Amino acid sequence: MKVLIDTCIWSKALRHKNPNKTIINELKQLIFDARVAIIGPIRQELLSGIADRSQFNKLKNKLSAFEDIPLKTNHFIKGAEFNNLCKSKGIQGSMIDFLICATASIENLHIFTEDKDFKHYEKVLPIKLYAI
Questions:
Q1: Amino acid 100: pLDDT
Q2: Which of 20, 75, 82, 120 could disulfide-link 98, Cβ–Cβ 3.0 to 4.6 Å?
Q3: E strand or H helix at 27, and its extent?
Q4: Distances (CA, A) of 49 to 45, 46, 52, 72
């Protein structure tokens, strides 16, 4: 099964000066097994805020090895439905988080994240979190 890699995981593996070895090793294994999935908004988040053009291009080139899952109207509608469902249960989240959840649900992907908000979403949404 493919795994949708959240921004925080990519960031810890590719942007931090002292990267988390466990995360890097797991991500390497997922890449080796051709199980990595990404969406455009995650790519945008990763590339945002990099002032140095050389670093930006280096990261952009590394990420170019991964093709975006094409997002369609149903992904965004499902994201809105997930947002509404979570809000009705008192769970707040960001639009990108609900788009990630919607994409994972529709495309039958696990989500690899360290963002604790996803544990709350998992209680009410049909998503599967990836565990190391």
A1: 98
A2: 82
A3: helix 21-32
A4: 8, 8, 9, 26
Q: 19 pLDDT exceeds 80?
A: no
Q: Looking at this protein, which amino acid is placed at residue 92?
A: Q
* The pTM of the whole model exceeds 0.90: yes
Instruction: Give me the domain span that covers residue 90.
Output: 1-132
Q: What is the CATH number of the domain that holds 93?
A: 3.40.50.1010
Decide if 11 contacts 114 (C-beta within 8 A): no
Confidence of residue 52 (pLDDT cuts 50, 70, 90): very high
- Contact between residue 46 and residue 11 where contact means Cβ atoms under 8 Å apart: yes
Task: Specify the long-range contacts of residues 42-51, CB closer than 8 Å, at least 24 apart.
Answer: 42/4, 42/5, 42/6, 42/7, 42/10, 42/96, 42/100, 43/68, 45/7, 45/96, 46/7, 46/10, 46/11, 46/14, 46/15
Return the CA Rg of the chain. 15
Q: Please tell me the total number of residues recorded for the chain in this structure.
A: 132
Identity (one letter) of the amino acid at 34?
A: A
Tell me how far apart the alpha carbons of residues 122 and 14 are, in angstroms, rounded to a whole number: 26
